[in-house]
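User: structure tokens for this one?
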Amino acid sequence: MDHDKVTEFLGRFVADLGAAGSAGAVAIGSRLGLYRALAQGPVTPRELAERTGCDARYLTEWLRGQAAGGYVSYDAVSARFSLTPEQAFCLADPNGPDLASACRAVTGYLRAVPRLTEAFRTGEGVPWHEHDDEVFVGSDAFYRPGYIADLVPNWIPALDGVEEKLVAGGRVADVGCGLGTTSVLLAQAFPRATVTGSDSHETSIELARKRAAEAGVGDRVGFELATAQAFGGTGYDLVTMFDCLHDMGDPVGAARRVREALAPDGTWLLVEPAAGDRVEDTFTPVGRLFYAGSTFLCVPNALSQEGGHALGAQAGEAAIRGVVTQAGFTRFRRAAQTAFNLVYEIRP
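Assistant:
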């Protein structure tokens, strides 16, 4: 045994263990608005307590731990904690990536450890709606920045002829819409278009309706409670699915329903997590992140449904192409990609 390699492994494990605990601390910071309060200027723990109404002793430990992880900055001369512009953008800016809220998905799905432990033994599924509510809010917060950055500026223009249809007033079905982020973004960008979002999770649909109303697009964005295999309507110019096909027990059935719902010249925009086709290509920091979510959320949800599939969040392009081809589509291409997503244009 190489003791230097043991030491190296221990160092990696200690870092991961600390990061796991830090995720909970970040979630607390998100819930209590601590990062937004910090963004107002440098503070001592007592001053942050006055600013937030929280307990100074708890804040002392929280601030020190955040500084140890590099999430918060510390000035030894003034004994004050603060956020750099970069930290504030990532953790406190409402127009930033809101990484603090994204941590809530992790702390939410970790609450399912006892249930998942038993599922590993039995092979049974764990449906999406049985997870903690933090999972739904946190998952939306994780994906939202990427959708804001790329959906309208990059992904829609990468599709052949789709942008022109939406500008003129096309019809869109946003399948597996979750909390409605993508439905609202499309409606805001294309005022003549109409969007129908659908999801099998009732709580998400309720939140989506609320968000669409708050965004002022409720008259052009409707939502229905439906599975991907049974969403309503036909003749759509565009059907979209964002990071959800791999969660389905019957992705082929969902793909067949998309084919039925599209107009003859319609397009299916399918966005899936970035992944290589070879297993070893997924052994990256992003792949590790998605495998964690897939183990707790994606695969258990798929196994809870009829169909027998459980693609997982690192399925890769070849597996997705196989599903699409089996459903009867003849045209499939990768239209765009980011560090977190692969974007496919699919046509009948």
